[in-house]
Amino acid sequence: MEPRTPGEIRLQRRAEPEGTVAAETRTLVVGPYASRRDAAGAEPRPAGARLDEAVGLARAIDLDVVDRLLLAIQAIRPSTYLGKGRVEEIAGRIEADAVRLVVMDCALSPVQQRNLEKAWGVKVIDRTGLILEIFGRRASTREGALQVEHAHLAYQRSRLVRSWTHLERQRGGFGFLGGPGETQIEADRRMIQERMTRIERDLETVTRTRGLHRRSRRRVPYPIVALVGYTNAGKSTLFNRLTRAEVLAENMLFATLDPTARAIGLPHGETAILSDTVGFISDLPTMLIAAFRATLEDVIVADILLHVRDIAHEDTQAQGEDVGEVLAALGIAPDTDRIIEVWNKADLLDAPDRERLLNLSRQAGTKPVLLSALTGEGVDRLLARIEARIAATRASFAVILDPAQGAELHWLYENAEILDRREDASGALHLVVRVAPEKEPRFLNRFGAARRLKGAGG
Predict the structure, then answer these.
(1) CATH classification of 6-192 is 3.40.50.11060, yes or no?
(2) What positions does the domain Hflx-type G occupy (predicted)?
């Protein structure tokens, strides 16, 4: 729905990437990190790796990162997050380097953000604001755009505070609705809520359409395989390798936002549907998890999840745990049998590490699959693992049909996987079929004489 009133037009403008947070904006990235040690006393995510990721996020929208600053903080100050001395030190750097934007790799309260902008005289965004900027530029489908706008508006609503100054009234872009006084703030808040309500209605329509498409796929007897993983782990490269598609696959955080699904062939001729999804990230804003829940329904209902990890990354263990946390937020236990862990980017490993991890991946059970989506090494092992995992959850049956049972044969081709077919001298068809658990009751009701061979419940 196009905005019609002046207020709606103003709101739409505020929900578009602003000019000042754009390509080549001179940016300082600050990583103010408190120690986060686990039960064993180890730091699960090195501060340097966290800062590198924040710089990567800034560069994902072509910001010109002219400097970075790693700060170890003992306590968070309610007014400015940082201590007075640090604030003054950064002010000097901003002036010396002609910085126009400061990215704080943390979650700032509206008051902290406002006070830092007063102290530094430049625009300040926190980690959530930066991720929202990226999502706002990456979403290309109508559903993705609606989801991102909804998340932006939820963030904007949290930024509306009293005592607006001249600086706030000059701010623009996501999360910043200017306007002096409580009356304007309340008007903006009401306008935001009205727009969010309209978006939610639009998303319900889109979600219903996706649900119809999903049910249509479910009527076809193909299992769903969904790719999940930390952003930039190589999911889209693996998707392209498995499907021979041309999905955007770049060395860039959040290169993929909108889901894509394609058919893939398994080693013994069976077919599965492979779905590529948005990458996860540490401290992913809750509002984005909620906004993309409709998109991630393919993950929730998938028969198999391929958890793709950049095994060559120094932070791979912590990244894997972050993905597990997001899956848990979606109601998926990280240790479920549906998950196959994929150790990607084997081509970046040295020989000893490659051999050690390859030996692990060759073991039976739930061990990871080591591969390189870029070179294709190990992809055959992954496809075999997918096929074996699907077979373990689906029962196989022997079915004999008379030549006149054409309707029954058609039903089997529509609702089951035909693993083997042969005809005897009398013309009777001897079939081996594999049936998904949700279709097994209907199958047994229609083919009571079928003989169970193996698989679920066998």
Answers:
(1) yes
(2) 223-394
Q: What is the pLDDT of residue 144?
A: 74
Euclidean distance between CA atoms 313 and 46, whole angstroms = 12
- pLDDT > 80? residue 322: yes
388 residue type, one letter = A
Mean pLDDT is lowest, of 83-92, 214-223, 229-238, 339-348, for 214-223
Distance CA 145, CA 17 (A): 12
Burial class (CB in 10 A: 0-12, 13-18, 19+), 446: middle
User: Are 214 and 192 within 8 A, CB to CB?
Assistant: no
CA nearest neighbour of 50 among 100, 129, 126, 106: 106
Burial of 104 (0-12, 13-18, 19+ CB in 10 A): buried
Cβ atoms of residues 188 and 161 within 8 Å: no
Identify whether the C-beta of residue 448 lies closer than 8 Å to the C-beta of residue 386.
no
- Helix, strand, coil % over all residues of the chain, rounded to 5: 45, 20, 35
Which segment, 130-139, 153-162, 387-396, is predicted with the most confidence on average?
A: 387-396
How many other CB atoms are found less than 10 A from the CB of residue 215? 9
Q: Domain locations in the chain? A: 6-192, 221-392, 394-454
CATH 3.40.50.720 matches 221-392: no
Domains 6-192 and 221-392 share a fold: yes
C-alpha dihedral sign at 390, 395, 396, 400: negative
232-249 residue pLDDT tens: 899 989 998 998 865 444
Residue 262 has pLDDT above 80, yes or no: yes
Residues 66, 46: Cα–Cα separation, whole Å: 22
Alpha-carbon separation of residue 387 from 230, 247, 413 (angstroms): 24, 24, 19
Q: Please count the other Cβ atoms lying within 10 Å of the Cβ belonging to residue 142.
A: 12
Q: At residue 278, does pLDDT exceed 60?
A: yes
Q: In what order do the strands lie in the sheet with 123-126?
A: 64-72, 26-33, 101-104, 123-126
Q: Does residue 422 sit in helix, strand or coil?
A: strand
Rounded Cα gap, residues 403 and 422, in angstroms: 12
One-letter amino acid at 64 equals D
Residue 403: C-alpha distances to residues 3, 284, 382, 448 (Å): 62, 58, 39, 18
Asked if residue 123 lies in contact with residue 171, where contact means CB atoms within 8 angstroms, the answer is yes
What CATH number was assigned to the domain covering residues 394-454?
3.30.70.240
Helix 47-60 to helix 127-138 angle, to the nearest 10 degrees? 40
DSSP label of 77: B
Nearest residue to 175 via CA among 162, 186, 161: 161
Q: Percentage of the chain with pLDDT > 90? A: 36
